[in-house]
Specification:
Radius of gyration: 20 Å
CATH class: Mainly Alpha
Helix content: 40-55%
CATH topology: Glycosyltransferase
Strand order of the largest sheet: 3-4-7
Structural class: mainly alpha
Number of helices: 16
Number of domains: 1
Number of strands: 9
Length: 420
């Protein structure tokens, strides 16, 4: 007998729970990932508020002395994952005894902490209090170490969360991989290689990592000579929204939020530098060359989630939704690099649908929000709680029994729009 979807989703969260943190899925991702963990907390908030807060508290246990919250925290050794803590080489430079990666990920915590807070404000006051200054320090790190162009940049494709997005292609093509050497990937032993980044992608990922490691993860050295710095709509929009929610949390605690409000104004101006008039969309920009990527991706549609009222990309959203039965595609299907199976080159991600859908709903674009809502529900009903899905036939792809897809079902997909 098949369990109801709510029960299946809860079982996935509990099955991926490691006590104080949640892994994205067994095998493929055996550690605590930053934005996955934020989604896990949002999902746990539907069934266990204390466990939701513990997830966020554990994430910040890996925070660096400079404020950065890593994209992976290696709580336990697992030889089934590459690159592990020995490859990252952050020991002794982070100011934290927990081994971790040396880059961050999209900062969802302030926004989701607000949503969890609103479920029980009395408990929220107690739990946000110790976290608040840590979140502020993380946001400050983004503004100071990734914000030189006004928008927020990534120093590694993994930092964006959209590992092999077409946005990075030209910048990655300029990275020298001659010194990478031999290595053994582990991801393709868990998932069909057709669904994962290519060998050339991984060569570049490691070359960028090795550069930063050789410079002991010094942000000044990475800024001045790093091989990869690309201003990213994903990070910029998500941080802008997080700034707004951090102000709200600060207000609940009686904090002076004037600095954060300044960050909001600055980032709103900076995001305008990501508008590419040639394609009439928000776009990634290579800061080493000044060139736009020239791609319409799902990242552009996070503008409403960020609290912007700009509707210039609505026509692109409609076009992408019309082009595939299951939206929204991660890359424009008209793009020659579109691939419905390969990670961020085309597949639809319920987590991205959730963020875009939240923004559309809040901005009053109810019909578009409902389309993403119904598409997400249908994908899960037909294909389960996969990491991502083929937008053309809805088949599940990537890892299975995925934490963040289950969390999105509980917190957004299974609810009425505007609820939660």
């Amino acid at each position: 007998m098949t369990l109801p979807l709510n029960d299946q989703a809860i079982a996935i969260l509990k099955g991926n729970d490691r006590g104080s943190y949640t892994v994205p899925t067994k095998g493929l991702y055996p550690y605590q990932w930053n934005w996955d963990s934020a989604f896990a907390a949002l999902g746990f908030a539907e069934i266990d508020l204390n466990r939701a807060w513990v997830e966020l508290e554990t994430l910040f246990s890996g925070q660096w002395a400079n404020g950065m919250v890593p994209h992976i925290i290696f709580h336990e050794v697992d030889d089934g994952y590459f690159p592990g803590p020995g490859v990252w080489g952050t020991e002794g430079v982070s100011g934290n005894d927990l081994p971790s990666s040396g880059i961050s990920q999209p900062p969802l915590v302030a926004t989701f902490a607000r949503k969890i807070f609103e479920k029980d404000p009395a408990e929220g006051i107690k739990r946000v209090g110790p976290l608040y200054d840590k979140i502020v320090a993380w946001h400050k790190w983004f503004m100071e170490c990734r914000g030189e162009s006004g928008a927020i940049c990534v120093t590694h494709p993994w930092e964006s969360g959209r590992d092999n997005a077409a946005d990075w292609d030209e910048a990655m093509a300029n990275v020298d991989v001659s010194g990478v050497g031999e290595y053994q990937r582990r991801d393709t032993s868990h998932v069909n290689p057709e669904m994962r980044p290519t060998k050339r992608d991984y060569d570049v990922y490691l070359a960028i990592l090795y550069y930063a490691r050789a410079h002991k993860w010094d942000e000044k050295a990475i800024l001045e000579g790093g091989p990869f710095r690309v201003a990213d709509p994903t990070l910029s929009f998500i941080l802008l929204r997080a700034h707004r929610d951090l102000v709200w949390l600060g207000d609940q605690l009686g904090k002076d939020t004037s600095v954060i409000k300044g960050w909001i104004a600055s980032l709103e101006r900076g995001i305008e530098t990501l508008w590419n008039p040639a394609i009439e969309s928000y776009d990634a920009k290579d800061l080493n060359t000044g060139k736009f990527s020239g791609n319409v991706t799902s990242a552009a549609f996070l503008c409403w989630y960020a609290g912007l009222t700009d509707d210039r990309v609505l026509s692109h959203l409609k076009r992408l939704l019309d082009a595939a039965p299951h939206g929204v595609t991660s890359l424009d299907p008209e793009n020659p690099d579109y691939n419905p199976k390969r990670y961020w080159r085309g597949p639809v991600w319920v987590v991205v649908n959730t963020l875009i859908g939240m923004g559309l709903d809040e901005a009053g674009h109810k019909a578009f929000a409902e389309r993403l809502h119904s598409d997400s529900a249908r994908l899960i009903e037909q294909g389960g709680f996969a990491e991502y899905f083929n937008p053309e036939d809805g088949t599940p792809a990537g890892g299975g029994t995925f934490t963040w897809t289950a969390a999105c079902w509980l917190a957004w997909v299974s609810k009425e729009l505007g609820e939660g």
